[in-house]
Amino acid sequence: MLSALNERGELIMLTERFTRLDLKQLKTSHTFYCRDCREPLILKIGSRVTPHFSHYRHSTCATFSEPESPMHLQGKKDLFLWLRGQGLDVSLEQYFPSIRQRADLVVRKYRQLFAIEYQCSPIPFERLMERTEGYRHLGILPVWILGGMPFRSSGKEAESVYRCSDFQLSFLRHTRHHFYLFSYPPGKKKVCLLSHMTPISAKTFHACYAEKPLSAFSFPFTDDQFSFVSAPVPLPEWFAERRRWIGLKIQFGKAFQDPFLRHVYEAGMHPGSLPPFIGLPLLHMAACKQHPVEWQFYIWLDALFALRTKAAVSLDELLRLFTVRMEKKEIAFRKSPYVRERNAAKAMIYEYAQLLVQLGLWSKGKAGYYMNKNVFAPKNTEELEHMERHLSSVLGAGVSTGKAEQ
C-alpha cells in the first residue's frame, strides 16, 4: 500500500516526491499504522520496487488481503499523479466499510464519484462483477484499468494477430464501430490499445495495436480520446484461416455431440462445403465466443427456416431466434462489465444482415429481410476458391476493421 498513518494519526502518502534519504529518515523517525485495522506496518524501501507499506506476515487485516506486485504499486502511483495533475479531487486506497471494498483510487468529477480499480493479477469474473456491483450500489461508477499489456502474445507485426487471455478479455469495451482493449503498463508510461478486434479463434484476434502517452489522456477515459483509422482484414488470409478452422473442427469435433456439427449435418450439408459468406470478419463480433462460421451459420439457418412460412424476417425475429440458441448454450458471449449481451448480439446480427444485403444475397424491405436467391454450396475446392475470389472482388481489399492512429 502507498498510504499509512503515523504515530500522530497523520496521513503519510508515498505518492509524494520523497528522495531515498527522505524515506530512510521517515522510516527511522516514525512508526506507521494501517488506516483501517490500525495494525503496525513496515515501510519497505527496496532498490527494485516502488517504496510501499506492508503488513507484518501474520497480520489479520481483512482490507488488504493479498500482497501488491511492483507493477500494481507503480501503476497506482502513476495514475494518482496523473489524476492529481488534472486538478481532480483524488484519494488513495479509500475503504468503503458497507461493502467491505477498498478502491485503488477514488476520484470526484462532475459531482460524481469514480472508483478506479487497477487490476494486474487475474481474478475470477464473478469477483470482478461483485466489486463492480458493490460500487454501483453506493452510486459510485467503477472504472477498471487493466495492468500490463492488453494481450498475452502477438504474431509478426505485419500479421496484426494477437492472443488474449480470458482475464484480459474481461475488460473488453466497445464503441459504436468496434471492440477494443486498453491497458496501462507502468514501465512504458503509456496507454496501450488493441483496437478493431476481429476474432480468428476463441482467444486470437486480428487487431491494430497503438500506444499513447498517459499524459495525452484526461479522466475519465472516453472513446473519443482514442483516434481510429479504418483498415481491412485481408480476405485471402482470412479465408485460409477459415478453412484451417473448419478442418480442425471436423478433425477434433465430436460429430453429433458438437451442436454446430450436428446442425450442419442435419441440414444436409458438410462443414467443408459451407459457402464462404458464412464466416466473414465483422467489426461487432469480438464479444461472441463462437467462431464466425458457427454463429453466422446459425443466422443463415434460422432465416432459411423462418422464410419458409414468412415473406420476410425482421431483425427482432433474428435476434429472438439467436437468443434461443444462447439459452441452449449453443452460443455464448464473453463476460465484461462493459458489454451487454443483448446489445452485442443485436449489433453483430445487424452488421451481418447488412453485409448479406451488400453481397446481393439478401434484400431489405419494410417487413424485414428477404432472401434473394438459393445459394448452392461449393462442390469442391475449386468452386470454394472461386467463391472466395468473387467475395474478395465484391468487398474490395477486405471487410473493414481498423488501425489506431499513433
TrEMBL record:
Location of the Competence protein CoiA C-terminal domain: 238-379
Lineage of the organism: Bacteria, Bacillati, Bacillota, Bacilli, Bacillales
Database matches in InterPro entries: CoiA-like_N (IPR057253), CoiA_C (IPR057252), CoiA_nuc (IPR010330), Competence-induced_CoiA (IPR021176)
Superkingdom: Bacteria
Pfam families: CoiA_C, CoiA_N, CoiA_nuc
Protein known as: Competence CoiA family protein
Species name: Heyndrickxia coagulans 36D1
Domain (Competence protein CoiA-like N-terminal) ranges: 18-63
Domain (Competence protein CoiA nuclease-like) ranges: 68-219
